[in-house]
Amino acid sequence: MLRKIRNMEKIYLALIVFCMLLTGCHGSKGSGTFEIPQDFDQNEKIEITFWAKNDTNVTQSRIYEKAAADFNKLYPNVKVNIRLYTDYGKIYNDVITNISTNTTPNVCITYPDHIATYLTGKETVVKLDELMRDEKYGLKGSELKFDGPAMDEIVPEFLNECRIGDSFYALPFMRSTEACYINKTYVEAMGYEIPDILTWDYIWEVSEAATKKDGDGNFLVNGQKTMIPFIYKSTDNMMISMLKQKDAGYSDENGNILIFNDTTKEILRTVAEHAASYAFSTFKISSYPGNFLNAGQCLFAIDSTAGASWMGSHAPLSDISEDKIVDFETVVRPIPQFDPAHPMMISQGPSVCIFNKQDPQVVLASWLFAQFLLTNETQIAYSQTEGYIPVTTKAGESLEYRDYLAGCGSDNDLHYDVKIKAAEMLMANKENTFVTPVFNGSASLRDAAGQMIENTAKAVRRKQTADDKFFDTMFDDMVSLYHLDQINTGNVSGDLGPLPGPAVALIAALIAAWVVIIGINLKDIIKKRKAENNT
Amino acid sequence: MKKLLVLVLTLALVMSLAACGKKDEDKKDNCNETTPAVEKTDFTKSEGVMTYAQYDAANVDEPVTVETFVQDKQSWWDNKATIYTQDNEGAYFIYEMQCSEEDYAKLVKGQKIRVKGFKADFQGEKEIADATFEILDGNYIAPATDVTSLLGTDELVKYQNRYAEFKGMTIAASKDADGNDAAFLYKWNGSGQDGDDLYFNVELNGNVYTFTVESYLCGKDTDVYKAVKELKVGDKVDLTGYLYWYDTVNPHIISVTAAK
Question: What's the topology of domain B22-139?
Answer without folding.
Answer: OB fold (Dihydrolipoamide Acetyltransferase, E2P) (2.40.50)
